[in-house]
């Protein structure tokens, strides 16, 4: 049932699920099935059961029979789903609770009887898996990964695309209530004692990369209570001062009131105050540069670790957007041609956010297939709400501004100005207006682009068209050329030229 091996390379038109990870954790047992590109997989199916295998470990040293029964029922269901879908690449892993329980080995025998092939991860392997999940999500990340699970807290240093100095601490969410019940001072003392094992973290610069559902719930709390523009907690960041303030508030909060906030499940809200109390001590002891929240962790790290080196080096944003837009008319090849055609207008000095512009171009092509009265809204949602890996809030805002301009709406948005600087947004609007012109010229055909060029020449923006395609020049084209030129503070000029610079 484990079906080990390299992930199958599905075509862009085929969105069948081809990878899965079953994560037998201390608090939950989860199945996640993935599809999409190898570098930026998308969640195709996600289900978890709160079995709480590790709830009695501190008292009995064993996993409760009821929790085992609950887990096995969930795992039997997962095995059936995987078999029915014929998912070829399945990894089943068990972490802290199974690792520490006296009846862990017997439990794994029962899991094998279901046709699964579980792998018991050591604390170091678990920490490395989480670390590579963050490395995959943030390719140039440098800092400390803090993966909070039900049974343990993994801390591991990441830099230069690798990790080191990992440690697994007995500070999972299922253990914190008993520690905190001893009182505030003993709780802080116990957490500080464990944090001393990660003293290396204070010697390394960078933020804490927060991994795990409880940390993401904390991010959602921070976003909701500040009326944040975005909805996805992935890549959300807090300064150390902001994190300290939020940790104090949440540590005193009523879990029922936390659960009333959209996006915070009751099961997560129950653990939030204790986790926030621990975070306060973590911040004072580890002294990070800030917090960055990651939706990728152990499961994605397990997938990332198995990728060939050349695939790891791919840009996750471009890989993810290309896979998403291909079946929607957003050909990566055509987008690259358009990006080259618009380059001089978009970036007069040849510099700029080229990866963002290419991603925006692919999405703009896909948006052209959407009904016109839905286009701007749909494209804006893709930019702002869909989970993209390798994209920060500023990048989201720039892509959104470009897509709105490509749809004929280039009015500055107060929402976007909360995420990005005006200079960046102005450049992004240029991308969108230039795309609109390229689309208008010949319906975005490669032939029309190869027979024309768009160049800045002094104070003018010049559109040259080959005489063999002179009929493409029309009032509508002149209108879009004028709009782009005015936005850039240039004079528009359209010419029928004898020769066009080869692309």
Describe the protein in words:
By secondary structure, the protein is an alpha/beta fold. It folds into 3 domains: 19-121, Nucleotidyltransferase, domain 5 (2-Layer Sandwich), CATH 3.30.420.40; 124-300, Exopolyphosphatase. Domain 2 (Nucleotidyltransferase, domain 5); 316-496, Hypothetical protein af1432 (Orthogonal Bundle). It contains 24 helices and 14 strands. The protein has helices at residues 57-60, 65-85, 96-100, 104-112, 123-137, 176-180, 184-195, 213-225, 240-251, 255-259, 266-269, 272-286, 298-305, 309-312, 316-325, 332-341, 343-346, 354-367, 372-384, 393-406, 414-417, 422-442, 446-450, 475-488, and strands at 19-24, 29-36, 41-49, 89-94, 118-120, 143-148, 153-159, 162-169, 208-211, 237-239, 290-294, 452-457, 460-465, 491-496. It has a 6-stranded mixed beta sheet, with helices on both faces. Helix 7 (184-195) packs across helix 12 (272-286) and helix 22 (422-442) packs antiparallel against helix 24 (475-488). The longest helix has 21 residues, at 65-85. The relative contact order is 0.09.
Describe how the helices and strands are arranged.
Elements: E1 19-24, E2 29-36, E3 41-49, H1 57-60, H2 65-85, E4 89-94, H3 96-100, H4 104-112, E5 118-120, H5 123-137, E6 143-148, E7 153-159, E8 162-169, H6 176-180, H7 184-195, E9 208-211, H8 213-225, E10 237-239, H9 240-251, H10 255-259, H11 266-269, H12 272-286, E11 290-294, H13 298-305, H14 309-312, H15 316-325, H16 332-341, H17 343-346, H18 354-367, H19 372-384, H20 393-406, H21 414-417, H22 422-442, H23 446-450, E12 452-457, E13 460-465, H24 475-488, E14 491-496
Parallel strand pairs: 1-4, 4-5, 6-9, 9-11, 13-14
Antiparallel strand pairs: 1-2, 2-3, 6-7, 7-8, 10-11, 12-13
